[in-house]
């Protein structure tokens, strides 16, 4: 008998209710939602250890991906899952911590660009090493074929929700 997870139990309970809802068909996404919640809690714990908030981690990660390029606040916002209104105070906090600095935008006299400092780069590299090691540990039991099929299926769903993108920061 195969092992049951939380979603198996929930779907079985829903199926006893004789509803017309297709719970079996959405079990995959129910698992994605559950996994996402667990991974978000793990990220929150990681951020606490590094004295960061999850949004700050996302912003530093976006800056690290773009490094050594600088990003505008708008580009930085695009590279995170934050609202545009949260970006200015987030950059303020990161600047206060010495993790980023604002620079005048040479192409826009009214604009600014955000640059990752050496301290910011070192901090996010250490935090990312931990995060990526944990994610790699979670997918390690999957075979190559399972991983490719899973990635393909989830990519299709994500494209339905977000559409295609050229890159993550602009």
UniProtKB/TrEMBL annotation:
Coiled coil: none annotated. GO terms for biological process: response to stress. InterPro entries: HTH_MarR-typ, MarR/SlyA-like, WH-like_DNA-bd_sf, WH_DNA-bd_sf. One of its GO terms (molecular function) is DNA-binding transcription factor activity. Gene3D superfamilies: Winged helix-like DNA-binding domain superfamily/Winged helix DNA-binding domain. Pfam families: MarR_2. It comes from the Bacteria. SUPFAM superfamilies: Winged helix' DNA-binding domain. This is MarR family transcriptional regulator.
């Amino acid at each position: 008998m195969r092992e049951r997870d939380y979603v198996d139990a929930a779907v079985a309970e829903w199926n006893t209710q004789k509803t017309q809802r297709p719970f079996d068909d959405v079990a995959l996404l129910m698992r994605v939602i559950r996994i996402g919640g667990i991974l978000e809690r793990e990220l929150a714990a990681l951020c606490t250890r590094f004295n960061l908030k999850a949004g700050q981690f996302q912003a530093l990660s976006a800056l690290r991906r773009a490094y050594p390029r600088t990003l505008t606040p708008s580009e930085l916002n695009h590279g995170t899952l934050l609202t545009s209104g949260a970006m200015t105070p987030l950059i303020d906090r990161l600047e206060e911590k010495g993790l980023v600095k604002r620079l005048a935008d040479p192409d826009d006299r009214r604009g600014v660009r955000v640059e990752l400092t050496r301290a910011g780069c070192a901090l996010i590299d250490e935090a990312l090493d931990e995060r990526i090691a944990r994610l790699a540990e979670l997918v390690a039991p999957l075979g190559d074929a399972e991983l490719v099929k899973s990635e393909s299926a989830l990519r299709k769903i994500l494209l339905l929700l977000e559409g295609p993108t050229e890159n993550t920061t602009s």
